[in-house]
Amino acid sequence: MKVITQEKLTAGLKKVFFNAENLFNEALILKHFKALSRAFYLFHMATEECGKYLIIYSYAVFKKDVNSDKLKSDFNHLNLNRNISLILGFSANEIEAIKTGNTEALLNATKEYQDEYHRDNNKLKNASFYVGIEDDELISPNEVVTEDMMNTEKMKAEKCILFIGGSLLLQDVKFEEGEKNRIVTLMSYLSEKFVKEFLSNSTVKIN
User: Fold this and answer.
1) Residue 108: how many CA atoms within 13 Å on its side-chain side?
2) Are 187 and 166 a contacting pair, CB within 8 Å?
């Protein structure tokens, strides 16, 4: 039985973050050249890497070694997308259940939201990369992915990278020279971006 040690799990958190960052940056290049469907795909892959971070973290935080086959099986698209949905926030039904204090309704709403998120996003991910069939038509990725869809996926990736970057800085991880600064710089940029977007969409004026 092959076991991934606690030390390797913790190091893996850093590998996942920087791979997500690289996928995000490569997607930005495709976005610049108006390759919308491919940019969408890489933004989505960046978010999936962030979902992988939470799976590794769930073992690392409890100081447990893990069977490598078990970890591989945990890295399935359903688990990754469920974790992404947790990072991105609550659905309307979840918020309503929280307000009423209905635990059972909250659990049901969470499962419903996670399953819906996985189904819809997995379908879009495939449609952004492969020619598919819709009714009696063959549909290319360029016919599916719009600029708005690509920008929405970019925003999801930004939120996920910001979340796991903050988590990574709190972990007992060995950083090479310049790596911490690289994370902080990216997080500062994303944080400032989200604050500006929030203020531009807010009806509250701040003097």
Assistant:
1) 7
2) yes
Cα–Cα distance list, 197 to 136, 148, 152, 201 (Å): 41, 16, 13, 6
Structure tokens at 51: 């979902």
Q: Give the separation between CA 163 and CA 169, rounded to whole angstroms.
A: 11
- Which ranges in 61-175 belong to alpha helices (H)? 68-74, 77-88, 92-100, 103-127, 141-144, 147-169
Specify the amino acid at residue 143.
E
Q: How many CB atoms lie within 10 A of CB 141?
A: 19
Q: Which of 190, 168, 163 is nearest to 180 (CA)?
A: 168
pTM of the model: 0.85
Residue 130: phi and psi, rounded to 5, are -125, 150
- Quick check: 161 and 149 in contact, CB under 8 A? no
Q: Which residue has the higher pLDDT, 18 or 118?
A: 18
Residues 26-50: tens digit of each pLDDT: 999 999 999 999 999 999 999 999 9
With residue 6 as reference, give the H or E element that holds it. Answer: helix 6-32
User: Residue 66: what are its φ and ψ, rounded to 5°?
Assistant: -140, 140
Q: Which residue has the higher pLDDT, 205 or 171?
A: 171
